[in-house]
Amino acid sequence: MAIDELEAQSFHWLVDMLESVEVGLVVLDLEFRVQAWNGFMENHSGITASKIRNRVLFELFPDIPEAWLTRKVDSVALLNTRAFTSWEQRPYLFKFRNTRPITGTEDYMFQNLTISPLSGTTGQVEKICLMVYDVTDIASGKRALERANEQLAKLSMTDRLTGLLNRGTWENLVDAEFERYRRYNQATSLVMFDIDFFKKVNDNYGHLAGDEVIKDTAATTKTNLRQSDSIGRYGGEEFGIVLPETDAEGARIICERIRESIEHSVVQTSVAPIRYTVSVGIAQLGDKPKSYMEWLQQADKALYAAKKGGRNRVVVFE
To answer: InterPro entries from the entry (predicted)?
Structure first.
């Protein structure tokens, strides 16, 4: 076989490989006119190589960040060295639809990008090659793992039944508010409240109905709080609220609104409609408590006084 024929055959194999490889290959001149556009790019863009040849890339792909890519290409050409970007730095260069069934939850193809200089016979960089790698599977898996970890972190901080902060997380906020008061001496109040005669609810209607009452308490309370307030489920049918920058009278007004809303609500359970009330204790933070636990004890004493005084009432710690 003649040398010319061997070279032609080798060239044919090379072209065939570049067309079939599962990597996007784009060759640009230094004016960003497209010189080569392989089958991967044709398939995902819907634009043929003949149609895009000698066209400026940004004209057909206005979504490409022109200033960013220009800086990258200029640096590659000047230093005659490769540059890399990952999907974590920039999700994609070409906004191709995701066509993989396994990662169908992602709308667009995530891409890694390699920018390589192509030198001419003089050794000067004359063209640039963009290699586009479809990493949607990897990106989708990592994003799913991150979402799962975020969900686990959230679950570790919240009460499963109500979605409120759990006791440990809420107590940390009480501690933080206590320390903030010691530093800035701004009025702040703590609320402890629980559902009156909750045992009777469980005994008469069952624990599932009791759970519905607890969820209703959480939802009704949240609708009557400000964004800055923090509510948590302290345990069983008992709840706690931190009211920043709120004195005892301001806390009493908020708590009366909560108490009245609950008193007038009806929980529609599968067993029967249930009416219920709550008792509330408030403690405005002062100089006497030496720890957040002592502050909690003050609010708990006020709650006990509300129960002893007949329930369905709000009592402020004196």
So the answer is: Diguanylate_Cyclase, GGDEF_dom, Nucleotide_cyclase, PAS-like_dom_sf, PAS_4, Rev_trsase/Diguanyl_cyclase
